[in-house]
Amino acid sequence: MGSITSPSSSAPPPEKFPRSSLVSVPVSTKKSEPGYGIYAVFSYKEHLDDCNVSCVMGCYDPSTNTWRHEYLVPGMIENCVLKGFAMVSVGTSIYIIGGSVYNVEVRSQVLRYNVVTKEWSTCVPLSTPRHNFACSVCDNKIYVAGGQSTLDGAMGVSTVEVYDVLLDKWTPLPCMSTVRYKCVGVTWQGKFHVIGGFTGNKMPFMDRCSAEVYDVANEKWNHVRGMWQLDIPPNQIVVIDDKLISSGDCLNVWKGQIETYDQDLNLWYPLRGSMRKNLSSSSCSSNGGQTSEPLERICLTMAAIGSYLYFMAGYRVAGDQSSCCTMSMVHRFDTSAMNNQWETFELVQVEGERELCSHCCVAQLP
Questions:
Q1: Which of 125, 205, 243, 309 is such that its CA lies 20 to 30 A from the CA of 330?
Q2: Domain of life, per the record (predicted)?
């Protein structure tokens, strides 16, 4: 594992760094889950028409309702954004795996970020470059499956590999029964699930609605028909209290409610009290006052901590192209409460445009 030089935590941020992102606002009086941070990678630019783009790691602290930015993601081509990668955590380390740089390359690189030392390092790369793939952690090992290995071809891959964080080693596993890309990976009941996605088979609808499940203990794949039930791939799936949770698909990331999976009936149904038409307000607060500027959501990702589901949303305020700001809003849903399950924290304004590059992950804070 190779190290990458990082600036010290006291060093000033780079010129294009979103300086205004660290803002503290009143947090809910409800009990928050301490000791965890929600990490995400954002593309950042000062103006909507700006060509200068940076990839920045951000961290949200649920206990204080505070955003802070860590560092620029290292090894990036200047003014290029990384997309389609996987971001997972093991202990106090975050791994950024694979991904693609638009019109440049599909990457096999694996980066590790230590949330304690604030240092980056490089790990052994993937055996197969891939983006838009399934990824999840099971028994402190990172599993990846499917995805696309080239920029110019729509066909995906069926290959699978697992990473041992202690040995810094990738090991190939048996392939899935079909190619899958834009699929979602989640660990549930001790098994690695690869759900939905686009496939290359002659009966695509049946495959897109299915899932492939890798039994880690027995080292074999099983096929579950109809587990997703939609032709459109899922957006994100997490686990709370041993239940699979989804809130949307690739075309509609928020479907107006949170859904959970019933394994016996093989169907998804709405969580009680979760229905909400949208996750934005009709106006936003700026400089202590109200404005009627509409909010256009440009990103949404979901994280599970304890019994809470956190929805990290970013909204672009419509206005002059010469300047822009992103309004960051966090919504929280308490799956254990009987009423008043939804809570929305105050808006935080970020100068410039901040757009999500991939889904977030949760890591232990030091």
A1: 243
A2: Eukaryota
Q: What pLDDT does residue 297 have? A: 76
Q: Helix or strand or coil: residue 37? A: strand
Residue type, position 138, single letter: C
* Helix ranges, 114-249 (H): 204-208
| Domain region containing 206 | 32-364
> Which tokens in the block code for residue 181?
């890309």
The count of domains in the chain is 1
In 227-360, at which residue ranges do the beta strands (DSSP E only) sit? 237-240, 243-246, 259-262, 267-270, 284-286, 289-291, 295-305, 308-317, 325-334, 342-344, 348-351, 353-356
Locus of tokens 């990457």: 107
108 vs 170: CA distance, rounded Å: 11
Tell me the whole-structure pTM to 2 decimals.
0.87
Residue 23 lies in a domain: no
SS3 207: helix
Strand partners, 310: 303, 332
CA distance 24 to 348: 8
Task: Choose the weakest-confidence range: 143-152, 194-203, 269-278, 311-320.
Answer: 311-320
Residue 119 CB neighbours (<10 A): 14
Q: Helical H runs in the chain?
A: 204-208
Question: Residue 8 domain-assigned?
Answer: no
Q: How many CA atoms lie within 13 A of 25 on its CB side?
A: 20
Comparing 81-90, 117-126, 263-272, 354-363, the range with the smallest average pLDDT is: 354-363
Please tell me the predicted confidence (pLDDT) of residue 103.
Answer: 78
pLDDT tens-digit series, residues 266-320: 999 999 999 998 776 444 444 444 444 556 777 899 999 999 999 998 887 765 5
Residue 178 token pair: 């079909």
In a domain, 94, yes or no: yes
Cβ within 8 Å of residue 283, ≥6 positions away: 290, 291, 292, 293, 295
